[in-house]
Specification:
The complex is a heterodimer of chains A (107) and B (332). Chain A is α/β, with parallel strands linked by helices and 107 residues long. Chain A has a single domain, classed as Glutaredoxin (3-Layer(aba) Sandwich). Chain A is built from four helices and five strands. Chain A has a five-stranded mixed sheet, covered by helices on one side. In chain A, a hairpin with a 2-residue loop joins strand 4 and strand 5. Chain B has 332 residues and is of the alpha/beta class. Chain B has two domains: 4-115 and 241-319, FAD/NAD(P)-binding domain; 122-237, FAD/NAD(P)-binding domain. Chain B contains seven helices and 19 strands. In chain B, helix 1 (13-24) packs parallel to helix 2 (59-72), helix 1 runs parallel beside helix 7 and helix 5 runs parallel beside helix 6. Chain B is elongated and about 65 Å long. In chain B, 46% of the residues are buried. Mean pLDDT of chain B is 90; it is low at 311-319 and 322-332. Classes of the chains: A alpha/beta (107), B alpha/beta (332). The A-B interface holds A 29, 31-34, 36-37, 40, 71-75, 77, 89, 91-97 and B 34-38, 42-43, 59-60, 79, 81, 97-98, 127-132, 134, 136-138, 140-142, 212-214, 233-234.
């Protein structure tokens, strides 16, 4: 059950969307088991950080350009951006607390 | 009084089977699932050796069924990251990230094992950028590209064969001159024209950390010490697993490799604490043996909670490694 707080980014709107503030982007795919496992965590973070950080997901099948630009070769991968700059990343599954700790460092 | 009669940590086949049995025994179990919820089967595709499914079943589907079955009989599933356990006082207490603590009269540990990495450091740094421990997750990124698989066991062969769906060529790098994998897996791998083998060798380095992606590897021949460069796009590591026992170190007996030592079924060195699945088994490591040992742990926990004498019981509380309370076995 995806939270409506989680945005969906695409190759075409990605650069505009990450321009301001802190953004957490969850790169994944429908067929990826671990990504489905991470989804509730990302949903919860979106609700928790509502108004402070943007939380979005990105389907790697539909958005090969941005996926390629960040050399993503494994999913799930979480990238954290601050004002358009890549500032942190988490590859694979992670606990909510760990992701929150990384987000907090940039807020 | 404890918050719970029994808490199960881990949600793979062992944990969910323990939950099913303790739920059906009316113990209202709380099952804690962590970051790797569902366990290793969540990372597999078709499981062909789970009895009862002649055509196989997808790993994630099997886990979803097991979970639904455990919940149907009253298991409470909680998502949480266990930070600390205290087994020296009864009831046992389990502390979660975020500060919450829950107590329980009995504990079933089914935290499983996680994939091992190489010991060269660079592999972890390039994780997600060409180095992976999960072929089914990441194979997709290597369509038409050459890759390597490290390891010589069943899972290494399974990954290598699976990856030939995507990769142009799969080079298996193995430390010995023969495979540890079962005969059937060896035959499949040798018959696959996309798979090549490099024997007696290990990965000495992975290029290119500067660029942040994999461009090749340096292979060291263990017999001749000769180094060879091999350009490729991905490295899949399948060199076994490490048990997830850091939480319990110093509180229950572990073997040299870090696995929980069990005796007389699922009993650990600490009365009231039971272990099941890969966290206490580095020999069989099958979904069905994990499930079987989860059932044993549930029955052992139930007997313990009933205060019934456990057959062949030889331990007392002093067997708990760190300052156990003396004498009394807790009655619910």
């Amino acid at each position: 059950m995806a939270s409506d707080k989680v945005k969906t980014f695409t190759d075409s709107n990605f650069d505009t969307e990450i321009k301001n503030g802190v953004t957490l982007v969850d790169f994944g795919a429908e067929w990826c088991g671990p990504c489905r496992r991470l989804a509730p965590t990302v949903d919860a973070l979106a609700a928790e950080y509502d108004g402070r950080a943007t939380v979005a997901k990105m389907d790697i099948d539909e958005n090969p350009n941005i996926t390629g630009r960040f050399l993503i070769r494994g999913i799930p991968t979480l990238l954290i951006f601050k004002n358009g700059e890549l500032v942190d990343q988490i590859v694979g599954l992670a606990a909510k607390e760990e992701i929150a700790r990384k987000l907090d460092q940039h807020l | 009084m404890a918050d719970r009669k029994v808490i199960i940590i881990g949600s793979g086949p062992a944990g969910l089977t323990a939950a099913l049995y303790t739920a059906r025994a009316n113990l209202k179990p709380l099952l804690v699932e962590g970051v790797e919820a569902g366990g290793q089967l969540m990372l597999t595709t078709m499981v062909e050796n789970w009895p009862g499914f002649r055509d196989g079943i997808m790993g994630p589907d099997l886990m979803a069924e097991m979970r639904a079955q455990a919940e149907r009989f009253g298991t409470d599933v909680m998502h949480g990251n266990v930070e600390r356990v205290d087994l020296n006082r009864r009831p046992f207490s389990i502390a979660f990230a975020g500060g919450k603590t829950i107590t329980s009269d009995a504990l079933i540990i089914a935290t499983g094992a996680s994939a091992r990495w190489l010991e060269i450091g660079v592999d972890r740094k390039l994780s997600g950028h060409g180095v992976s421990t999960c072929a089914t997750c990441d194979g997709y990124f290597f369509r038409g590209k050459p890759i390597a698989v490290v390891g010589g066991g069943d899972s290494a062969m399974e990954e290598a064969i699976y990856l030939t769906r995507f990769a142009s060529k799969v080079t298996v790098i193995h430390r010995r001159d023969s495979l540890r994998a079962s005969k059937i897996m060896q035959d499949k791998a040798f018959a696959n024209s996309k798979i090549e083998f490099v024997w007696d060798s290990e990965i000495a380095d992975i290029r290119d950390i500067e660029r942040g992606e994999v461009t090749g590897i340096v292979i060291r021949n263990l017999k001749t010490a000769k180094l060879t460069e091999l350009p490729l796009d991905g490295v899949f590591i399948a060199i076994g697993h490490t048990p997830n026992t850091a939480l319990f170190r110093g509180q229950i007996e572990l073997d040299e490799a870090g696995y929980i030592v069990t005796h007389h079924g699922s009993k650990t060195s600490c009365p009231g604490v039971f272990a099941a699945g890969d966290v206490q088994d580095h020999v069989y490591r099958q979904a069905v043996t994990a499930a079987g040992s989860g059932c044993m742990a549930a029955i052992d926990a139930e007997r313990y909670l009933d205060g019934l004498p456990i057959p062949d019981e030889t331990t007392d509380n002093a067997a708990c490694l760190v300052a156990p309370p003396t004498g009394e076995i807790l009655k619910p």
